[in-house]
Structures are given as structure tokens and as C-alpha cells.
Design a protein that fits this description.
This protein is mainly beta and 178 residues long. It is built from 1 helix and 15 strands, in the order ββββββββββββββαβ. It has a single domain, classed as Leucine-rich repeat, LRR (right-handed beta-alpha superhelix) (Alpha-Beta Horseshoe). The chain is globular, with a radius of gyration of 16 Å. It starts with a strand and ends with a strand.
């Protein structure tokens, strides 16, 4: 079952009752006027494969319950006001595409990125991220980490840039601070 309410001027908060839709595979609520936090109940839907919440005014942190989405392939959270750490975003084993750009995320890419073995598109630009850039980023075909403060250098930066050559590749704009 799929729900697509993208670009429908939906306002208010995301209903926690969406978590009761146990056969839901795709949820698209993008480009609306949704506010508040993402209800944890969404992360209890075992069949969810695509979640698109981009272009709203969602706030708060990503709860660790997102790790329950074992089948999730696509996660689009860009252009919101989400904050906190991004550790939980890399705990879904089948995740292929993640765009969490234009938010307020902070800290660094955690060690949990090694769990995201199928990740081939990663867009984290325009956040408050800093720290070392893990070598696991090199597995991605498309990366955007622009406006990143890379403490400790950028490992194998040139290899990664050429391996993810496409219009999302702003990786070289990461500012290396030793």
C-alpha cells in the first residue's frame, strides 16, 4: 500500500496513527506544511520501503526507532529543520538513498555508516556536520557533503570524488581542518 500526499498543502503534524498501517510500503508527505516531530510510530511499520518527508518544517531529532525499518530503501528528509545526531540514519541495512541535506544536523558521520552497505547516494550538505570523513563514504556512487568541516583530514578524497562523479558530487568542497 502506498500513500502519496506530496504537494497537497497538508498542514499540521504527522499523525501517529500512520504507524497502524502495517502493510504500508511507501509514504510520501513531501512539500507540504507539516510541522512538529516525526512520530516514532512511523518507524514501527515493518513493510516501509520508501519514506519521503522533504520540504516541510519538521523539527526534532531522528529517534533510534528508525532502526526498525529493516526494508527501507529510500529516505528523503531534506529541507526541514531536523537536528541532533545522525547516528540512527545509518542503521537501516537496505538503505540505498539518503538525502538529509538542508537541516540542522550536527556532530559527525558515525561508525554506524558501515552498516549501510547498500547506500549508493548520500546527501548531507548544508548541515552543521563536522569531524572526520569516514572511508566508508567511498562506497557511495553519489555524495554531497558540501559545507562540511572535516577535522582530521579527508581520507582518499580524490578516489572518492572520482568514484561518485555526478551532479551531486560536491564532496571536494569539504573544508579540511587539521
Amino acid at each position: 500500500m502506498s500513500i502519496n500526499l506530496g504537494q497537497n498543502l497538508v498542514s499540521g503534524s504527522i499523525s501517529s496513527s500512520l504507524g497502524k498501517l502495517t502493510h504500508l510500503t511507501t509514504l510520501i508527505l513531501s512539500r507540504n506544511k507539516l510541522v512538529g516531530t516525526i512520530p516514532e510510530t512511523i518507524f514501527t511499520v515493518p513493510t516501509l520501503r520508501a519514506l519521503d518527508l522533504h520540504g516541510n518544517q519538521l523539527t526534532g531529532e531522528i529517534p533510534p526507532e528508525i532502526a526498525n525499518l529493516k526494508l527501507l530503501n529510500f529516505l528523503y528528509l531534506q529541507h526541514n529543520q531536523l537536528d541532533g545526531r545522525i547516528d540512527a540514519l545509518f542503521t537501516m541495512p537496505r538503505l540505498k538513498k539518503l538525502d538529509a541535506s538542508y537541516n540542522e544536523f550536527s556532530w559527525a558521520i558515525p561508525d554506524t555508516i558501515r552498516k549501510a552497505r547498500h547506500l549508493d547516494k548520500l546527501v548531507l550538505s548544508h548541515n552543521r556536520l563536522m569531524g572526520p570523513i569516514p572511508k566508508e563514504i567511498g562506497r557511495c556512487k553519489c555524495c554531497s557533503l558540501s559545507f562540511w568541516t572535516a577535522r582530521g583530514g579527508c581520507p582518499d578524497l580524490i578516489h572518492v570524488c572520482f568514484s561518485c562523479f555526478c551532479y551531486f558530487c560536491y564532496f571536494c568542497r569539504a573544508q579540511a581542518i587539521g
